[in-house]
Amino acid sequence: MRTAIISDIHGNLEALSVVLEHMTSQNVDRVICLGDILGYGPNPVECVDLVIEKCHFALMGNHDFGALYEPTNFNAVAEQAAYWTRAQFEAEGDPDKAARRWEFLGSLRVRIAYGDFICVHGTPRRPINEYLFPEDAINSPVKMQQVFDRVEKYCLVGHTHVPGVFTDEPDFYPPDDLNGSYQLNDDEKAIINPGSVGQPRDLDPRASYAILDEDKKGVEFFRLPYDIDAVFDKIQAVPELSDWLGERLKEGR
Ligand code: ZN
Q1: How far is the CA of 8 from the centre of ligand 1 (A)?
Q2: pLDDT confidence band for 72 (50 / 70 / 90)
Q3: CATH assignment, 2-251
Q4: Is 184 left (phi over 0), alpha (psi -120 to 50) or beta?
Q5: pTM value > 0.85
Q6: How far is the CA of 168 from the centre of ligand 1 (A)?
């Protein structure tokens, strides 16, 4: 089975569309989403509809939680975006469509396990809000230990918007250091982050996602250019979405 792993779409329809189109040529059996469909971007409703249509399952991210329930620990820009996002769903005139979206968002789970894999948005110990940063592999040995203690073999996470593989050494490998692919093995545990579809933060502005081949135990990372200017313009046109949210897309941070 080949599973496309997407995460952190953040209402970026242009990026999501390019990623979904790309995976049609990659012999993918299913798509899973590690959370943060919403927040920051100008097309949250369209992105939710696509995830409902295309994804085998999706997880609850902190921005999905923020828009649906309440934004916790958000800065002013993120909080304002969360309220604007919620208003877009409330503005739906068709009650059936509105109900379907609320029901989907309300049913998002924080943790899903299958086979050798645990899937969360943040980390296995704090599935919605905790970040596992690349520098944690160097600076935070206790945190790494505690996180890996909760991983039996392999884990899929999002949230940092930085793609790569953590091993329980602990080490972190960005996709460039792996020539774009990683072979899972029985000798080490691994935590895989596919990066962000809609708001990459590793200084590469291209949309990021990964494909996991569960049978061959291989992970491939992909980067795809998309029409950032179109998203930038949409963000500029919405007063509640800070201009910075468009600028950061161009910088990949
Ligand atoms: Zn996110």
Answers
A1: 4
A2: confident
A3: 3.60.21.10
A4: beta
A5: yes
A6: 24
